[in-house]
Amino acid sequence: MLTQLRRPLRLSFGSSDSLICTAIETMGTLYQKDQDRFHLVLTEPQVNELGAIVTEFNVSTSQAVPTPRLLWLEFSPFRVAITMQGNGQFSYRHLFEPNVFGVSRFWLQNATTPSGLFHLRNFTRNLHVKGQPFPRYLLLEYELWAQQLKLGDYQFSVEIDF
Which residue has better confidence, 83 or 51? Predict the structure, then answer.
């Protein structure tokens, strides 16, 4: 049986070795696929800072407002897939499993590279899902790698309010 719940949530992303740290609070839809498998879908919140900067410097833009992008998490205590898709400018898909090197794929779309696909690897150090019967917390800690170069240590978490 498919269970669907619309819930407020807090999504956090940060790096322990650089100045990257962000958090958003929004609404998401949680789908229960099996006893321990869930999908969480949310729409990327609109970012208005660029509009304020463009207005401040009197720069005109002829671009149409892009359609919202979807962030889709498929997760269980054993595996996480995170997909960002939408407006055709930038998309990605990350696959995570504890103690395994996974794949992070990125698609960049612009006038010079119509199919700008590139891959990185990620190593999942910790994957933790807490809450019964519905998850209330997801924690993912991983390393990002390009060939033999470590690009950093990252932490991704989702707190779902019930």
Answer: 83
Residue 31 identity (one-letter amino acid) = Y
Paired with 110 in beta bridges are none
Q: Please, are residues 134 and 160 in contact by the beta-carbon 8 Å criterion? A: yes
**pLDDT at site 80:** 98
Angle at 125 between CA 18 and CA 13, to 5 degrees: 40
Q: Which pLDDT value is given to residue 49?
A: 46
Cα dist from 85 to 88, 91, 116, whole Å: 8, 5, 15
Residue type, 27: M
Query: Phi first, then psi: what are they for 23, rounded to 5°?
Result: -150, 145
Phi, psi of 51 (to 5 degrees): -60, -40
Query: Containing H/E element for 156?
Result: strand 149-160
Does CATH number 2.40.128.20 belong to domain 3-160?
A: yes
Cα–Cα distance, 44 to 70 (Å, whole number): 6
Residue 148: in which H helix or E strand, if any?
none
In degrees rounded to 5, what are phi and psi of residue 12?
A: -125, 145
**Alpha carbons 23 and 13: distance in angstroms, whole number:** 6
Sketch the domain layout of the chain as residue ranges.
3-160
Mean pLDDT, the chain, as a whole number? 84
Q: Residue with structure tokens 């949310």?
A: 42
